[in-house]
Design goal:
2 strands; two-stranded antiparallel sheet; Growth Hormone, Chain: A
């Protein structure tokens, strides 16, 4: 009897593992998918490297963290303003025609910044370089996700798994990037972090756009007088603002964690605690990709609430170990929330404006990070590290509140070629929404 139960348990475990692996295998076996996702990882490394690299370079050369922080902020703000513009141009003219010239500008901006700092040029040149580099950094995450949407056009039930893969890639970027840039600055040269970020981003970007077979098709307007199809702002606008709340959450939590570790007597603990936070998100992203699809709006609402609730427990942590557990629990809600946000955008915006729509969501995140970090820093100076966690809780609460103002869109219009096109793609609805719908073969 016991041996029979043991065999059944082993079979269930083996079957569960095979289902998970099969789900990811089906997605990654799509022609070209593994290649463009891998190139996207390389291209996205500057997202977690350039800001930190600027801070390390400028603080080393000037001794001023104020100047370093101002330059990093100029880069981030320019990036947030430029990416929706780049995304819209990509939708209209194609990835390669837009990204390749933009990459030249990105490389020129980082070169101007590094040369200006190293040669001691006047500060306006530094800010010009940082602003130019930020404004021309392409929205790589949106470009890769747009390729997934095109690649899975006839197998839309696999999109949640594809978005989960990209969420895992995002976490990998934030694990690899800071470690790499710090090692380069310490062991090679103060400007090596910024230079390496520019090189890696440029190489990865070229590798991505060179894969022309998987690029989404360009849907030009029929005539100059044609208007762009409606973006679906009833969903996208509150989602973008909610994403800014999530940016406040991430920026505030990171600064508060560093301050908590320093107050506890070991600033170095912040590294492994933040890594544990990212690990929780990575594991959750893998799990979400293997599970059946659910309503993304419900998933976003629940995820935002879970982020807020778990981060609120951080104020009760009395030690680094206790805070680490809170961060890990919070991390388990990060990827599901971000995956749901991208799924909502994909269901809402027209195909011809998909890259731009996704970029608005990621821009919201970028906009929120700086005030979140600044707010946490001010709270630390005024009231200590523990109360600084009120800042990410407030950001998460804002996202959770706005999540309930989003008007659900049951299906996405393929309004790609003109105002007269109102074809509805029902396959973008969650798998469970229609019990008669069969999974993809």
């Amino acid at each position: 009897m016991a041996s029979t139960q043991l065999r059944e348990t082993k079979v269930r475990k083996k079957f569960g593992k095979s289902v998970v692996l099969q789900t990811y295998r089906r997605v990654l076996s799509v022609p070209g998918a593994a290649a463009f996702s891998g190139a996207g990882l390389l291209a996205r490394l500057p997202f977690s490297m350039t800001g930190l690299g600027i801070v390390l370079l400028v603080s080393d050369r000037t001794g001023s963290y104020g100047t370093a922080g101002a330059l990093a902020a100029a880069y981030v703000v320019a990036e947030a303003c430029g990416q929706p513009v780049v995304g819209r141009l990509v939708d209209r003219h194609g990835q390669a025609r837009v990204v390749l010239p933009v990459l030249v500008v990105f490389a020129a901006g980082t070169t101007l910044l590094c040369v200006g700092v190293e040669l001691g040029w006047s500060r306006p040149w530094w800010f010009a370089g940082a602003t130019l580099a930020g404004a021309s950094y392409p929205p790589w995450g949106s470009l890769v996700r747009a390729r997934w949407v095109h690649a899975l056009l006839r197998r839309r039930s696999l999109l949640p798994t594809a978005f989960a893969i990209e969420a895992v890639v995002d976490e990998a970027v934030f694990v690899i990037g800071p470690v790499l840039v710090t090692a380069l600055v310490t062991a090679v040269h103060p400007s090596a972090g910024v230079v390496a970020a520019a090189v890696l981003g440029t190489v990865g970007g070229v590798l991505l756009v060179a894969q022309v077979r998987t690029a989404p098709p360009v849907r030009p307007r029929r005539s100059p007088g044609d208007v762009a199809p409606a973006m679906g702002w009833a969903t996208l606008a509150p989602l973008a603002v909610a994403s800014a709340g999530l940016g406040i959450f991430f920026g505030g939590a990171e600064v508060a964690t560093v301050a908590f570790a320093e107050a506890a007597g070991s600033r170095g603990d912040a590294g492994w605690m933040l890594a544990l936070w990212a690990t929780g998100s990575l594991l959750a992203g893998i799990a979400v990709g293997a599970l059946p699809a659910v309503d993304p709006l419900l998933q976003f609402r629940v995820g935002a609430l879970a982020l807020t609730a778990t981060m609120a427990t951080a104020m009760l942590a009395g030690s680094s170990g206790g805070l680490a557990l809170c961060l890990f629990a919070s991390g388990l809600a990060v990827s599901p929330t971000l995956i749901a946000a991208m799924a909502l955008v994909e269901q809402t915006v027209p195909s011809s404006r998909l890259t731009e729509g996704m970029t608005w969501a990621t821009t919201g995140l970028a906009i929120g990070v700086a005030p979140g970090a600044a707010g946490a820093g001010a709270t630390i100076d005024a009231a200590g590290a523990t109360l600084a966690f009120l800042v990410p809780v407030a950001g998460g609460g804002l996202a959770a509140l706005l999540a309930w103002t989003i008007r659900p869109t049951p299906a996405r219009r393929i309004g790609s070629d003109g105002a007269g096109d109102h074809t509805v793609d029902k396959s973008s609805a969650p798998v469970r929404a229609d019990p008669r719908r069969q999974p993809d073969a």
